[in-house]
Design goal:
- By secondary structure, this protein is mostly beta strands.
- The chain contains 4 helices and 29 strands.
- The strands form 7 sheets. A 6-stranded antiparallel beta sheet has the order 1-2-5-4-3-6. The chain has a 4-stranded antiparallel beta sheet with strand order 7-29-28-27, with no helix packed on it. It has a 4-stranded antiparallel beta sheet with strand order 8-9-10-11, with no helix packed on it.
- Strand 27 and strand 28 form a beta hairpin.
- The radius of gyration is 25 Å and the shape is globular.
- The N terminus is likely disordered.
Length: about 450
Protein backbone atom coordinates (compact mmCIF):
# COMPACT_ATOMS: atom_id res chain seq x y z
CA UNK A 1 0.00 0.00 0.00
CA UNK A 2 2.79 2.39 0.93
CA UNK A 3 4.45 1.64 -2.41
CA UNK A 4 1.27 2.65 -4.31
CA UNK A 5 1.07 5.87 -2.29
CA UNK A 6 4.68 6.65 -3.15
CA UNK A 7 4.03 6.01 -6.86
CA UNK A 8 0.98 8.30 -6.82
CA UNK A 9 2.95 11.04 -5.07
CA UNK A 10 5.73 10.82 -7.65
CA UNK A 11 3.21 11.05 -10.52
CA UNK A 12 1.56 14.09 -8.92
CA UNK A 13 4.93 15.78 -8.49
CA UNK A 14 5.80 15.12 -12.15
CA UNK A 15 2.46 16.51 -13.28
CA UNK A 16 2.97 19.59 -11.10
CA UNK A 17 6.42 20.05 -12.63
CA UNK A 18 4.96 19.93 -16.13
CA UNK A 19 2.40 22.64 -15.25
CA UNK A 20 5.04 24.91 -13.74
CA UNK A 21 7.24 24.47 -16.79
CA UNK A 22 4.33 25.46 -19.02
CA UNK A 23 4.08 28.76 -17.15
CA UNK A 24 7.59 30.04 -17.81
CA UNK A 25 8.39 33.26 -15.96
CA UNK A 26 9.14 34.84 -19.32
CA UNK A 27 5.43 35.06 -20.22
CA UNK A 28 4.00 38.07 -18.37
CA UNK A 29 0.95 40.33 -18.49
CA UNK A 30 0.98 44.11 -18.29
CA UNK A 31 -1.48 47.04 -18.26
CA UNK A 32 -4.47 44.91 -17.26
CA UNK A 33 -7.73 46.87 -17.17
CA UNK A 34 -11.38 45.89 -16.80
CA UNK A 35 -13.92 47.28 -19.23
CA UNK A 36 -17.64 46.79 -19.84
CA UNK A 37 -18.74 45.69 -23.29
CA UNK A 38 -21.66 43.96 -25.00
CA UNK A 39 -21.59 40.23 -25.67
CA UNK A 40 -23.10 38.48 -28.71
CA UNK A 41 -26.56 38.68 -27.10
CA UNK A 42 -26.39 42.40 -26.35
CA UNK A 43 -25.79 41.89 -22.62
CA UNK A 44 -23.18 43.89 -20.71
CA UNK A 45 -20.23 41.84 -19.48
CA UNK A 46 -16.94 42.62 -17.74
CA UNK A 47 -13.80 41.93 -19.75
CA UNK A 48 -10.17 42.06 -18.65
CA UNK A 49 -7.79 43.23 -21.34
CA UNK A 50 -4.12 44.13 -21.48
CA UNK A 51 -0.80 43.07 -22.95
CA UNK A 52 0.92 39.69 -22.97
CA UNK A 53 4.71 39.99 -23.17
CA UNK A 54 7.32 37.30 -23.70
CA UNK A 55 10.38 38.40 -21.71
CA UNK A 56 12.03 34.99 -21.66
CA UNK A 57 14.36 33.09 -23.96
CA UNK A 58 11.82 30.44 -25.02
CA UNK A 59 8.88 30.69 -27.41
CA UNK A 60 5.32 29.65 -26.45
CA UNK A 61 2.29 28.20 -28.18
CA UNK A 62 -1.09 26.80 -27.10
CA UNK A 63 -1.46 29.96 -25.04
CA UNK A 64 -4.46 30.54 -22.80
CA UNK A 65 -5.11 32.90 -19.91
CA UNK A 66 -6.91 32.26 -16.63
CA UNK A 67 -8.31 35.16 -14.62
CA UNK A 68 -8.99 35.38 -10.89
CA UNK A 69 -11.09 38.35 -9.80
CA UNK A 70 -10.71 39.68 -6.25
CA UNK A 71 -12.55 42.18 -4.08
CA UNK A 72 -10.99 44.54 -1.54
CA UNK A 73 -11.09 41.77 1.11
CA UNK A 74 -8.89 39.56 -1.07
CA UNK A 75 -11.80 37.20 -1.76
CA UNK A 76 -12.27 35.59 -5.15
CA UNK A 77 -15.49 36.98 -6.65
CA UNK A 78 -15.09 35.85 -10.24
CA UNK A 79 -13.04 34.03 -12.83
CA UNK A 80 -12.46 33.95 -16.55
CA UNK A 81 -10.79 32.21 -19.45
CA UNK A 82 -9.28 34.05 -22.41
CA UNK A 83 -6.60 34.13 -25.06
CA UNK A 84 -4.22 36.38 -27.01
CA UNK A 85 -5.84 38.57 -29.66
CA UNK A 86 -4.85 41.07 -32.30
CA UNK A 87 -5.33 44.73 -31.45
CA UNK A 88 -8.85 44.78 -32.98
CA UNK A 89 -9.91 41.73 -30.96
CA UNK A 90 -9.49 38.90 -33.49
CA UNK A 91 -8.49 35.72 -31.65
CA UNK A 92 -5.18 34.07 -32.53
CA UNK A 93 -5.11 30.42 -33.54
CA UNK A 94 -3.80 27.84 -30.99
CA UNK A 95 -0.77 27.19 -33.20
CA UNK A 96 0.24 30.85 -32.88
CA UNK A 97 3.77 30.97 -31.49
CA UNK A 98 4.90 33.85 -29.33
CA UNK A 99 8.61 34.39 -29.89
CA UNK A 100 10.92 36.12 -27.35
CA UNK A 101 10.40 39.87 -27.27
CA UNK A 102 6.92 39.75 -28.79
CA UNK A 103 3.99 41.70 -27.31
CA UNK A 104 0.36 40.84 -28.05
CA UNK A 105 -2.96 42.01 -26.69
CA UNK A 106 -5.21 39.68 -24.68
CA UNK A 107 -8.85 39.62 -23.69
CA UNK A 108 -10.52 37.58 -20.93
CA UNK A 109 -14.34 37.65 -20.48
CA UNK A 110 -15.06 37.59 -16.75
CA UNK A 111 -17.75 35.63 -14.91
CA UNK A 112 -18.56 37.63 -11.78
CA UNK A 113 -20.32 35.44 -9.19
CA UNK A 114 -22.28 38.35 -7.71
CA UNK A 115 -23.04 40.97 -10.39
CA UNK A 116 -23.02 43.83 -7.87
CA UNK A 117 -19.66 42.87 -6.34
CA UNK A 118 -16.96 45.54 -6.58
CA UNK A 119 -13.80 44.45 -8.41
CA UNK A 120 -10.57 45.42 -6.66
CA UNK A 121 -8.08 43.63 -8.92
CA UNK A 122 -7.75 40.91 -11.54
CA UNK A 123 -4.85 38.48 -11.66
CA UNK A 124 -4.08 36.96 -15.06
CA UNK A 125 -2.32 33.59 -15.12
CA UNK A 126 -0.77 32.65 -18.50
CA UNK A 127 -0.66 28.97 -19.47
CA UNK A 128 1.29 27.74 -22.47
CA UNK A 129 3.65 25.17 -23.91
CA UNK A 130 7.30 26.22 -23.97
CA UNK A 131 9.21 25.49 -27.18
CA UNK A 132 12.56 26.46 -28.67
CA UNK A 133 12.68 29.98 -30.07
CA UNK A 134 13.04 30.58 -33.80
CA UNK A 135 16.13 32.77 -33.92
CA UNK A 136 15.34 34.11 -37.38
CA UNK A 137 12.02 35.47 -36.12
CA UNK A 138 13.06 36.46 -32.64
CA UNK A 139 16.06 38.48 -33.80
CA UNK A 140 15.54 39.87 -37.32
CA UNK A 141 18.54 41.00 -39.27
CA UNK A 142 19.68 44.58 -38.77
CA UNK A 143 18.94 46.86 -41.71
CA UNK A 144 21.21 49.86 -42.25
CA UNK A 145 19.26 53.11 -42.25
CA UNK A 146 16.21 51.56 -40.55
CA UNK A 147 15.66 51.85 -36.79
CA UNK A 148 13.18 49.68 -34.88
CA UNK A 149 11.06 51.85 -32.58
CA UNK A 150 8.32 49.49 -31.41
CA UNK A 151 7.08 45.93 -31.81
CA UNK A 152 3.46 46.85 -30.97
CA UNK A 153 0.63 47.07 -33.50
CA UNK A 154 1.29 50.70 -34.42
CA UNK A 155 -1.42 52.40 -36.48
CA UNK A 156 -0.84 56.17 -36.20
CA UNK A 157 2.15 58.53 -36.25
CA UNK A 158 2.08 62.30 -35.75
CA UNK A 159 5.29 64.19 -36.50
CA UNK A 160 5.67 67.12 -34.07
CA UNK A 161 8.86 68.34 -35.77
CA UNK A 162 11.85 66.73 -37.47
CA UNK A 163 13.14 65.15 -34.25
CA UNK A 164 9.99 64.26 -32.29
CA UNK A 165 6.91 62.23 -33.03
CA UNK A 166 3.91 60.65 -31.32
CA UNK A 167 2.65 57.18 -32.18
CA UNK A 168 -0.26 55.02 -31.11
CA UNK A 169 -0.70 51.27 -30.81
CA UNK A 170 -4.04 49.53 -30.84
CA UNK A 171 -6.95 48.96 -33.19
CA UNK A 172 -6.96 51.11 -36.34
CA UNK A 173 -10.78 51.36 -36.18
CA UNK A 174 -10.82 52.88 -32.69
CA UNK A 175 -11.04 56.57 -31.89
CA UNK A 176 -7.59 57.90 -31.03
CA UNK A 177 -8.32 58.13 -27.28
CA UNK A 178 -8.95 54.36 -27.18
CA UNK A 179 -5.38 53.56 -28.22
CA UNK A 180 -2.07 53.61 -26.30
CA UNK A 181 0.12 56.64 -27.11
CA UNK A 182 3.87 57.18 -26.86
CA UNK A 183 6.28 59.99 -27.64
CA UNK A 184 9.63 59.34 -29.30
CA UNK A 185 12.77 61.42 -29.79
CA UNK A 186 14.75 60.60 -32.91
CA UNK A 187 18.14 61.69 -31.55
CA UNK A 188 17.99 60.03 -28.14
CA UNK A 189 15.84 57.04 -29.09
CA UNK A 190 13.88 57.56 -25.88
CA UNK A 191 10.15 56.82 -25.89
CA UNK A 192 7.61 57.24 -23.10
CA UNK A 193 3.94 56.33 -22.67
CA UNK A 194 1.73 59.43 -22.69
CA UNK A 195 -1.85 60.57 -22.96
CA UNK A 196 -2.46 62.20 -26.31
CA UNK A 197 -2.14 65.99 -25.83
CA UNK A 198 -5.64 66.58 -27.23
CA UNK A 199 -7.40 63.77 -25.35
CA UNK A 200 -8.68 66.31 -22.80
CA UNK A 201 -10.69 67.96 -25.58
CA UNK A 202 -12.86 64.84 -26.00
CA UNK A 203 -15.66 65.79 -23.61
CA UNK A 204 -19.35 65.03 -23.11
CA UNK A 205 -20.08 68.54 -24.35
CA UNK A 206 -18.23 67.82 -27.62
CA UNK A 207 -20.07 64.53 -28.16
CA UNK A 208 -23.39 66.24 -27.46
CA UNK A 209 -22.60 69.03 -29.91
CA UNK A 210 -21.80 66.65 -32.78
CA UNK A 211 -24.66 64.30 -31.79
CA UNK A 212 -22.44 61.26 -31.21
CA UNK A 213 -23.20 60.46 -27.57
CA UNK A 214 -23.44 56.71 -28.18
CA UNK A 215 -19.94 55.33 -27.38
CA UNK A 216 -20.12 52.79 -30.23
CA UNK A 217 -21.05 55.43 -32.81
CA UNK A 218 -18.40 57.82 -31.55
CA UNK A 219 -15.77 55.07 -31.67
CA UNK A 220 -16.55 54.43 -35.36
CA UNK A 221 -16.63 58.13 -36.26
CA UNK A 222 -12.87 58.39 -37.03
CA UNK A 223 -13.00 61.71 -35.13
CA UNK A 224 -9.61 63.34 -35.73
CA UNK A 225 -8.15 66.72 -34.88
CA UNK A 226 -6.30 68.35 -37.77
CA UNK A 227 -2.65 68.47 -36.61
CA UNK A 228 -1.73 71.94 -35.38
CA UNK A 229 -5.18 73.36 -36.07
CA UNK A 230 -8.40 74.10 -34.24
CA UNK A 231 -10.52 72.00 -36.61
CA UNK A 232 -11.66 68.39 -36.60
CA UNK A 233 -13.02 65.84 -39.09
CA UNK A 234 -15.48 63.02 -38.39
CA UNK A 235 -18.26 60.93 -39.91
CA UNK A 236 -21.79 61.07 -38.53
CA UNK A 237 -24.13 58.23 -37.68
CA UNK A 238 -25.21 58.22 -41.35
CA UNK A 239 -21.58 58.32 -42.61
CA UNK A 240 -21.79 61.97 -43.72
CA UNK A 241 -18.29 63.49 -43.58
CA UNK A 242 -18.16 66.72 -41.56
CA UNK A 243 -15.55 69.20 -40.37
CA UNK A 244 -16.05 71.43 -37.35
CA UNK A 245 -14.28 73.55 -34.80
CA UNK A 246 -12.43 71.47 -32.21
CA UNK A 247 -15.33 71.85 -29.77
CA UNK A 248 -17.83 70.65 -32.38
CA UNK A 249 -19.23 74.06 -33.24
CA UNK A 250 -19.57 75.51 -36.77
CA UNK A 251 -19.94 72.16 -38.57
CA UNK A 252 -19.53 72.07 -42.34
CA UNK A 253 -20.76 69.11 -44.37
CA UNK A 254 -18.10 68.00 -46.83
CA UNK A 255 -19.76 65.04 -48.54
CA UNK A 256 -22.96 63.11 -47.90
CA UNK A 257 -24.51 60.11 -49.69
CA UNK A 258 -21.70 57.98 -48.26
CA UNK A 259 -23.95 55.61 -46.31
CA UNK A 260 -23.31 52.66 -48.65
CA UNK A 261 -19.49 52.71 -48.46
CA UNK A 262 -17.19 52.04 -45.50
CA UNK A 263 -14.71 54.63 -44.27
CA UNK A 264 -11.35 52.93 -43.69
CA UNK A 265 -9.18 55.87 -42.66
CA UNK A 266 -8.39 59.58 -42.71
CA UNK A 267 -4.79 60.54 -43.56
CA UNK A 268 -3.71 64.14 -42.91
CA UNK A 269 -0.99 65.55 -45.15
CA UNK A 270 -0.14 69.13 -44.11
CA UNK A 271 -1.98 72.38 -43.46
CA UNK A 272 -5.19 70.51 -42.68
CA UNK A 273 -5.32 68.76 -46.08
CA UNK A 274 -6.46 65.14 -45.83
CA UNK A 275 -7.63 62.14 -47.81
CA UNK A 276 -10.49 59.94 -46.62
CA UNK A 277 -10.58 56.51 -48.22
CA UNK A 278 -13.29 53.88 -48.49
CA UNK A 279 -13.50 50.19 -49.38
CA UNK A 280 -15.23 47.04 -48.21
CA UNK A 281 -12.17 44.89 -47.58
CA UNK A 282 -9.00 43.43 -49.05
CA UNK A 283 -9.14 43.22 -52.85
CA UNK A 284 -11.77 45.94 -53.27
CA UNK A 285 -11.24 49.10 -55.26
CA UNK A 286 -10.53 52.12 -53.10
CA UNK A 287 -12.80 55.16 -53.33
CA UNK A 288 -11.51 58.42 -51.91
CA UNK A 289 -11.98 62.13 -51.43
CA UNK A 290 -9.65 64.98 -50.59
CA UNK A 291 -10.54 68.11 -48.62
CA UNK A 292 -9.19 70.35 -45.91
CA UNK A 293 -10.24 70.74 -42.31
CA UNK A 294 -11.76 74.17 -43.01
CA UNK A 295 -14.49 72.42 -44.97
CA UNK A 296 -13.24 72.98 -48.53
CA UNK A 297 -13.79 70.18 -51.04
CA UNK A 298 -10.65 69.49 -53.07
CA UNK A 299 -11.96 66.50 -55.02
CA UNK A 300 -15.08 65.20 -56.63
CA UNK A 301 -17.47 62.92 -54.76
CA UNK A 302 -15.98 59.43 -54.21
CA UNK A 303 -18.74 57.94 -56.35
CA UNK A 304 -17.41 59.71 -59.46
CA UNK A 305 -13.66 59.73 -58.76
CA UNK A 306 -11.46 57.24 -60.62
CA UNK A 307 -11.18 54.21 -58.29
CA UNK A 308 -7.73 53.11 -57.13
CA UNK A 309 -6.27 49.68 -56.50
CA UNK A 310 -4.33 51.12 -53.53
CA UNK A 311 -4.88 53.74 -50.85
CA UNK A 312 -4.01 56.99 -52.66
CA UNK A 313 -1.06 59.20 -51.84
CA UNK A 314 -1.92 62.91 -51.85
CA UNK A 315 -0.08 66.02 -52.96
CA UNK A 316 0.39 68.78 -50.35
CA UNK A 317 -2.42 70.86 -51.88
CA UNK A 318 -4.80 67.91 -52.11
CA UNK A 319 -5.44 68.43 -55.83
CA UNK A 320 -3.35 65.52 -57.10
CA UNK A 321 -3.30 61.89 -55.98
CA UNK A 322 -1.02 58.95 -56.67
CA UNK A 323 -3.21 55.96 -57.45
CA UNK A 324 -2.80 52.52 -58.99
CA UNK A 325 -5.20 51.59 -61.77
CA UNK A 326 -5.61 49.92 -65.13
CA UNK A 327 -6.23 52.59 -67.76
CA UNK A 328 -6.43 51.73 -71.47
CA UNK A 329 -5.02 48.30 -70.73
CA UNK A 330 -1.97 49.61 -68.85
CA UNK A 331 -1.70 48.78 -65.12
CA UNK A 332 0.56 50.97 -63.03
CA UNK A 333 0.91 54.01 -60.84
CA UNK A 334 -0.75 57.18 -62.10
CA UNK A 335 -0.73 60.84 -61.14
CA UNK A 336 -4.40 61.83 -61.20
CA UNK A 337 -6.18 65.15 -60.67
CA UNK A 338 -8.88 65.10 -58.00
CA UNK A 339 -11.32 67.44 -59.78
CA UNK A 340 -10.64 66.95 -63.51
CA UNK A 341 -10.15 64.01 -65.89
CA UNK A 342 -6.35 64.40 -66.00
CA UNK A 343 -4.28 61.20 -65.50
CA UNK A 344 -0.57 60.68 -66.20
CA UNK A 345 1.13 57.29 -66.15
CA UNK A 346 4.17 57.36 -63.86
CA UNK A 347 5.35 53.78 -64.42
CA UNK A 348 3.90 50.37 -65.19
CA UNK A 349 3.69 47.96 -62.27
CA UNK A 350 1.52 45.37 -60.59
CA UNK A 351 0.43 47.22 -57.43
CA UNK A 352 0.14 45.64 -53.98
CA UNK A 353 -3.16 45.20 -52.18
CA UNK A 354 -5.16 48.01 -50.63
CA UNK A 355 -3.68 47.11 -47.24
CA UNK A 356 -0.20 48.40 -48.14
CA UNK A 357 1.02 51.90 -47.18
CA UNK A 358 -0.23 54.75 -49.35
CA UNK A 359 2.48 56.44 -51.45
CA UNK A 360 4.02 59.64 -50.10
CA UNK A 361 4.01 62.60 -52.49
CA UNK A 362 6.56 65.19 -51.43
CA UNK A 363 7.17 68.57 -53.08
CA UNK A 364 10.17 70.43 -51.67
CA UNK A 365 10.49 74.20 -51.21
CA UNK A 366 12.47 74.39 -54.45
CA UNK A 367 9.66 72.51 -56.27
CA UNK A 368 11.41 69.15 -56.62
CA UNK A 369 8.95 66.25 -56.62
CA UNK A 370 9.43 62.81 -55.05
CA UNK A 371 7.01 59.90 -54.74
CA UNK A 372 7.90 57.23 -52.15
CA UNK A 373 6.28 53.85 -52.71
CA UNK A 374 6.25 50.66 -50.62
CA UNK A 375 5.44 47.58 -52.68
CA UNK A 376 6.48 43.94 -53.10
CA UNK A 377 9.18 43.29 -55.72
CA UNK A 378 10.03 39.65 -56.46
CA UNK A 379 8.35 38.62 -53.21
CA UNK A 380 10.20 41.15 -51.03
CA UNK A 381 8.84 44.38 -49.58
CA UNK A 382 10.83 47.29 -51.04
CA UNK A 383 10.90 51.06 -50.61
CA UNK A 384 11.24 52.88 -53.94
CA UNK A 385 11.35 56.53 -54.94
CA UNK A 386 10.00 57.79 -58.24
CA UNK A 387 11.13 61.17 -59.58
CA UNK A 388 8.43 62.54 -61.92
CA UNK A 389 10.82 65.14 -63.34
CA UNK A 390 13.58 62.72 -64.37
CA UNK A 391 11.14 59.81 -64.88
CA UNK A 392 13.48 57.52 -62.91
CA UNK A 393 12.39 54.88 -60.39
CA UNK A 394 15.02 54.39 -57.68
CA UNK A 395 15.08 51.19 -55.59
CA UNK A 396 16.15 52.23 -52.08
CA UNK A 397 15.94 49.37 -49.57
CA UNK A 398 14.12 46.29 -48.39
CA UNK A 399 11.43 46.87 -45.77
CA UNK A 400 10.50 44.89 -42.63
CA UNK A 401 6.92 44.47 -43.90
CA UNK A 402 5.22 41.08 -44.06
CA UNK A 403 1.51 41.81 -44.36
CA UNK A 404 -1.25 39.22 -44.34
CA UNK A 405 -4.44 40.16 -46.17
CA UNK A 406 -6.11 41.22 -42.90
CA UNK A 407 -3.18 43.41 -41.84
CA UNK A 408 -2.24 46.96 -42.84
CA UNK A 409 0.73 49.23 -43.27
CA UNK A 410 1.14 53.04 -43.21
CA UNK A 411 3.87 55.63 -43.90
CA UNK A 412 4.36 59.23 -42.72
CA UNK A 413 7.00 61.68 -43.99
CA UNK A 414 8.84 63.95 -41.56
CA UNK A 415 8.33 67.72 -42.07
CA UNK A 416 11.75 68.16 -43.71
CA UNK A 417 11.30 65.10 -45.94
CA UNK A 418 14.38 63.33 -44.59
CA UNK A 419 12.72 60.46 -42.71
CA UNK A 420 9.81 58.08 -43.11
CA UNK A 421 7.95 56.50 -40.21
CA UNK A 422 6.74 53.07 -41.34
CA UNK A 423 4.13 51.19 -39.30
CA UNK A 424 2.17 47.96 -39.52
CA UNK A 425 -0.35 46.11 -37.42
CA UNK A 426 -0.81 42.35 -37.05
CA UNK A 427 1.48 39.66 -35.69
CA UNK A 428 4.58 41.17 -37.31
CA UNK A 429 3.50 44.74 -36.71
CA UNK A 430 5.69 47.53 -35.41
CA UNK A 431 7.11 50.96 -36.05
CA UNK A 432 10.33 51.66 -37.92
CA UNK A 433 12.17 54.88 -38.74
CA UNK A 434 13.76 55.11 -42.21
CA UNK A 435 16.57 57.65 -42.66
CA UNK A 436 16.39 58.59 -46.34
CA UNK A 437 19.84 60.18 -46.18
CA UNK A 438 21.28 56.65 -45.91
CA UNK A 439 20.06 55.68 -49.37
CA UNK A 440 20.45 56.66 -53.00
CA UNK A 441 19.41 60.20 -53.89
CA UNK A 442 16.11 60.34 -55.78
CA UNK A 443 17.31 62.47 -58.69
Amino acid sequence: MRQWIAVVCILLLCLLGMIVNAQDVGLMTEDTTVITQLDAYGQEIKVAQGLLVNRGESAFNNISLLAEVYNANDEIIGEGFGYPVKACGEGLLPEFTMQPGMTEAFTVPLDIFEPEAAIDRVEIIPQADSIAADETIARPAFQSGITVISGREVVTVEWLDNENLLFSAGCWRDIFTNRSWYDYNVRSGIQSPIEHPRAVEITDALRNTIDLTDPLLFNRSFFSFAPGQNRAVYQTELNTLVTSEADGSFPRVLFDRLYNISLQGINFIQGGVFVAYYHGGYGDNVLYLTANANGQQLSQHPAVSLPSLIVPGVSPNGQRVIIAAEINGVTGYYLSATNTEFQELLFESEPPGNNWPAPLYNITQDSRRYVYIARPVDGEARLQCYNPDSDILHDLTSLPLNLETDERGWMWLSPDGSKIALAANGLRGGLWLIDLNEFEACD
